[in-house]
Design a protein that fits this description.
binds flavin-adenine dinucleotide; 410 residues; eight-stranded mixed beta sheet; alpha+beta; 25% strand
Length: 410
C-alpha cells in the first residue's frame, strides 16, 4: 500500500490549516472530512489578537480577510454594574492597547471552514469529503480505513492527525481519556441578521440581569450573539420561540445598542452548550497526534479555542518540518507546551466564570468587588491581558490560587 506522509481526520479549522501548511512544504497530505457541506454548528467565530497573529504565521490571515473576516476595532463592557457612559469611557481600542498585535477578527465559522478547506486543496492537499465508518490504527505502521460514496478504502501514512473536534472519534479510538471539568452554567448561541444598527467594529460583553451576553459582529448587519445562564434554567432558550427569547434578553437599559439585536432576525439554529473545560493529558501516541478541540477544549466563555487551535497547528507544523524522520520524541515539545497552555487557559476561564458565569445571589457583590480591584491595580488585569495577548504573556503568578483568592476573595 502506498504510504502518505500525513492523514488528517477532520477538515475543520485546525485540520485544514495544518493540511495547507504541510502540503505547501511538499508533504503528501490527505484530509478526510465527514460533512459534504458545512452547516452552522454554533462554533468559534471570535479570533483574539494572539490568535490572529498565529493566523499570520500560518499564512491564513489574508485567506480569512479575503473570505470576509471582520476586523474588530474596539470592545465595550456594557454591564449592569456600570452606567453606559462609564462603560463607553473605558472603551478598549485594540490598536492602542496592543500595538504589536494584529486586530482581532470575527468570521462566521462556516465561512472560515469553507475558506480554509479550499485553501488546503489549492495548496496541494488531497481532500476527501463525506467519509464514514472511520477507523484509525496508530503504532509503527499507522493507517486509516473509511467508507466514502459506498466504497471501503484504506490508507497508510507516516502520521495520523486527529482534528475531528470536541467529540473526536480518533481520540476515542486511540484510547486517550478526556478529563472534563464540572458544568456550572450553560451558553446559548444564535446567528442574527438585520442587526444593522449594531456597530460592525464593536464587540461587547457583560452581565445584564440573569444572563451574561457576548456580541461578535461579522459585518453587513450579521452578528453572533451568545447568552450565558444558570444551569438550573436549562431549556430556557429551546423550542420554537427560543431564538426570540434569546434576542429579547439583549433589550436591557444597560446595553444601549442591544435593541439592534432584539429587533434582529434569527439566521440559524439556537442551541445550548455546557460552559466547560476539558483536557487530554498526552494528546499523542506513536504514529498519531490530536490537535484542536480533539486534544481538549477551552470553555467557550472566554473565546480562546480557535486561537489555541491555530497555536497547535503552528507548533505541530514546525516540529514536523524540522526533521525528516519522525519518532516518538518529535512531538514531545508540543505536548509539553500544550499542557502548560491548557493549564493557563483553565485559570483564565475560571476568572471569566467568576465574572460572567455565576448567577447565585452573591454574584453581583463578588464581581463588583473584583472589578473594583482590577480598576485599582494593573496587577489584577493579568488575565485580561492573557486573553488578548496569549496565555504566555501574563506572569506565572496570575495562574495560581493565591492570585484567584486575592482577586475574588472577601
Ligand atoms: C458554543 C461555542 C462557541 C465558541 N466560541 C468560540 C469563540 O468565539 N472563539 C474561539 O476562539 N473559540 C470558540 N469556540 C471553540 C472553537 O469553536 C473550537 O475551539 C474550534 O472550532 C476548534 O477547531 P477544530 O478544528 O479543532 O474543531 P472543529 O471546528 O469542531 O472541526 C472538526 C471537524 O472535524 C469533522 N469531523 C468530526 N468527526 C469526524 C470524523 N469522524 N471523520 C471526519 N471528519 C470529522 C467535523 O465535521 C469538523 O469539520 C466555541 C465553541 C463552542 C462550542
Amino acid at each position: 500500500m502506498h504510504r502518505l506522509d500525513v492523514v488528517i481526520v477532520g477538515g475543520g479549522i485546525g485540520g485544514s490549516a495544518l493540511a495547507a501548511n504541510l502540503a505547501t512544504a511538499g508533504l503528501e497530505v490527505l484530509l478526510l472530512e465527514r460533512e459534504t457541506s458545512f452547516v452552522d454548528r454554533i462554533r468559534g467565530e471570535w479570533i483574539t489578537p494572539w490568535g490572529t497573529a498565529e493566523c499570520q504565521r500560518l499564512g491564513i490571515h489574508q485567506v480569512l480577510l479575503d473570505a470576509g473576516a471582520n476586523q474588530v476595532q474596539r470592545l465595550i463592557a456594557y454591564d449592569e454594574i456600570v452606567s453606559p457612559a462609564d462603560a463607553e469611557s473605558a472603551t478598549l481600542r485594540y490598536a492602542e492597547a496592543l500595538p504589536d498585535l494584529p486586530l482581532p477578527l470575527c468570521v462566521e465559522h462556516v465561512v472560515m471552514q469553507n475558506a480554509l478547506l479550499a485553501h488546503a486543496e489549492a495548496r496541494g492537499a488531497q481532500v476527501c469529503r463525506g467519509v464514514e465508518d472511520l477507523r484509525v490504527t496508530a503504532g509503527a505502521a499507522p493507517h486509516v480505513s473509511y467508507r466514502q460514496a459506498g466504497e471501503s478504502r484504506e490508507v497508510a501514512a507516516r502520521l495520523v492527525v486527529g482534528a475531528d473536534g470536541r467529540t473526536s472519534a480518533v481520540r476515542r479510538q486511540l484510547g486517550l481519556a478526556l478529563a472534563e471539568d464540572p458544568i456550572d452554567h450553560l451558553m446559548s448561541g444564535l446567528l442574527v441578521d438585520h442587526a444593522d444598527d449594531w456597530p460592525s467594529d464593536l464587540v461587547a460583553l457583560g452581565k445584564i440581569g440573569d444572563v451574561s451576553y457576548f456580541v461578535f459582529p461579522q459585518g453587513g448587519g450579521r452578528v453572533r450573539a451568545y447568552v450565558d445562564y444558570d444551569i438550573a434554567r436549562r431549556g430556557r432558550y429551546s423550542g420554537a420561540a427560543g431564538a426570540r427569547r434569546l434576542l429579547a434578553a439583549f433589550d436591557h437599559p444597560s446595553l444601549p445598542e442591544g435593541r439592534a439585536l432584539a429587533a434582529g432576525v434569527p439566521a440559524g439554529p439556537c442551541r445550548a452548550f455546557p460552559s466547560q473545560d476539558a483536557s487530554v493529558d498526552t494528546p499523542c501516541v506513536e504514529g498519531a497526534v490530536l490537535i484542536g478541540d480533539a486534544a481538549g477544549y477551552s470553555d467557550p466563555i472566554w473565546g480562546q479555542g480557535l486561537s489555541s487551535t491555530f497555536r497547535d497547528v503552528r507548533i505541530v507544523r514546525d516540529l514536523l518540518l524540522s526533521e525528516p524522520a519522525w519518532n516518538a520524541a518529535t512531538l514531545a515539545p508540543y505536548v509539553k507546551e500544550r499542557r502548560e497552555r491548557s493549564r493557563r487557559l483553565r485559570w483564565e476561564t475560571r476568572y471569566a466564570t467568576q465574572l460572567y458565569g455565576r448567577f447565585d445571589p452573591d454574584a453581583v457583590a463578588a464581581r463588583t468587588r473584583a472589578f473594583g480591584r482590577m480598576a485599582e491595580s494593573q496587577d489584577f488585569q493579568g488575565y485580561l491581558v492573557a486573553g488578548m495577548a496569549g496565555p504566555e504573556s501574563a506572569p506565572d503568578a496570575v495562574f495560581t490560587q493565591d492570585y484567584f483568592d486575592a482577586l475574588f476573595g472577601p
